[in-house]
Recover the amino acids of this structure.
């Protein structure tokens, strides 16, 4: 799966970090999302889906592998 | 696409007849889609009640939150008076200015910062519980517990003096009921404005490094000239006034719901892993942000098949969306094991979603992992029918008091 983030949308709510710590972090500098792993294994699919649904600003998009 | 403008179906806000029920009138909007509702001054507004439509409006930048827009749907005459005089805070600023200001606060509410605050908060919650136990029953869970925790937390995070907690609490109460008492709302805003302006001025003259929110605002933003003291004061007034009773009311209502459902309370006590889901269900079920979300359309557009004209006022109701049966099965029941409840809109959504969410969640977690475990016999001291709600025009719904015993 491929993950994209749009930092212009991010407001730093940190919901993605709560949902999937292996994949999303927050910058110390500006509090906005940092993508730790853009290509996580499919075993983390549930965590990623949760992060997408919990993000209040629609910052995260996911493309599933064929 | 429907283009007709019908007669108002109901008055907004519709009455909440008991703390556990969302207004029955909003069901009409979930059945029919976007409907007309009537505001306090007789003016019509659009009322949007389905989850999908509410969510899409909250994510859509073609809607403004600016109270100066002519058809902004105010909650009451009193609320209009207060907000037009003191339109303080991020909720009433549109992007792109909003994004710039909101991001100033993002580094202060990171998950990491919340984790650093957690041990102090947990210790304080234990202290408040010890005080309750020491004093003995009965107690008012509102005043003796929830409000103590939330005022302490905001003072601690902001770096304000704890000896002034009583003043902050009084101002918060004035703000809470601004929709029925404009004078109290205006006074609360003015007094906080004067206080914070002086506090910031003193910090500017004598800045001492610290990690609290006000010190960071002064050192990182006011002194370098990114933000004026007046701007910072206005943003802080909104945070200090709205960050207390909202969470306090949620804690109290959550405790009330647990005591009203003893079987679920037993499950919660035995399985701490349920706490996070239980908190989401409390936020969904009570949807305390009653006025949210008032908007004005900035262009002609369409919502749920209904044409909305540029300049029209719209209420995208999170209270209604959180009871949408197409998203939450059997929405009128309280179920701490509910699946998919994290989709609730209790904190709103989009750029204006609650900035204090991480703090509120931390406080709720601290409470619901400790309170009922520490006082196992905690229960209502009066029949549940006697619990009086704040009314539907409070800024954040709650109960006036919650008498408990053990």
């Amino acid at each position: 799966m491929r993950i994209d983030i749009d930092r212009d949308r991010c407001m730093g709510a940190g919901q993605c970090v709560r949902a999937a710590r292996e994949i999303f972090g927050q910058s110390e500098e500006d509090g906005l999302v940092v993508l730790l792993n853009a290509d996580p294994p499919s075993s983390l699919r549930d965590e990623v889906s949760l992060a997408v649904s919990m993000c209040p600003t629609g910052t995260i998009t996911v493309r599933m592998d064929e | 696409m429907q283009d007709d403008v019908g007669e108002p179906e109901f008055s907004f806000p519709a009455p909440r007849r008991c703390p556990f029920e969302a207004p029955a009138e909003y069901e009409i909007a979930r059945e029919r889609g976007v409907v007309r509702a009537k505001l306090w001054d007789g003016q019509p507004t659009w009322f949007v009640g389905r989850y999908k439509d509410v969510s899409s409006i909250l994510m859509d930048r073609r809607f403004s939150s600016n109270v100066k827009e002519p058809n902004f749907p105010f909650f009451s005459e009193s609320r209009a008076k207060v907000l037009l005089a003191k339109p303080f805070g991020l909720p009433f600023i549109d992007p792109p200015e909003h994004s710039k200001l909101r991001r100033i606060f993002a580094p202060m509410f990171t998950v990491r910062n919340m984790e650093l605050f957690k041990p102090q908060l947990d210790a304080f919650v234990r202290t408040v519980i010890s005080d309750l136990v020491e004093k003995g029953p009965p107690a008012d869970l509102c005043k003796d517990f929830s409000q103590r925790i939330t005022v302490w937390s905001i003072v601690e995070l902001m770096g304000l003096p704890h000896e002034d907690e009583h003043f902050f609490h009084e101002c918060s109460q004035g703000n809470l009921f601004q929709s029925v008492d404009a004078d109290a709302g205006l006074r609360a805003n003015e007094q906080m404005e004067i206080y914070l302006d002086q506090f910031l001025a003193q910090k500017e003259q004598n800045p001492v490094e610290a990690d609290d929110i006000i010190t960071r605002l002064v050192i990182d933003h006011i002194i370098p000239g990114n933000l004026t003291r007046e701007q910072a004061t206005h943003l802080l007034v909104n945070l200090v006034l709205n960050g207390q009773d909202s969470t306090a009311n949620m804690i109290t209502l959550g405790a009330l719901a647990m005591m009203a459902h003893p079987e679920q309370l037993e499950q919660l006590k035995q399985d701490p892993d349920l706490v996070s889901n239980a908190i989401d269900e409390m936020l969904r079920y009570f949807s305390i942000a009653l006025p949210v979300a008032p908007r004005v359309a900035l262009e002609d557009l369409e919502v749920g098949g209904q044409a909305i004209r540029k300049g029209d006022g719209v209420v995208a109701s999170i209270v209604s969306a959180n009871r949408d049966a197409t998203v939450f099965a059997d929405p009128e029941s309280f179920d701490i094991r509910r699946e998919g409840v994290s989709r609730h809109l209790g904190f709103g959504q989009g750029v204006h979603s609650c900035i204090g969410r991480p703090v509120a969640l931390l406080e709720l977690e601290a409470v619901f992992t400790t309170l009922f475990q520490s006082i196992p016999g905690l229960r209502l001291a009066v029949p549940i029918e006697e619990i009086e709600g704040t009314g539907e025009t409070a800024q954040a719904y709650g109960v006036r008091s919650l008498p408990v015993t053990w």
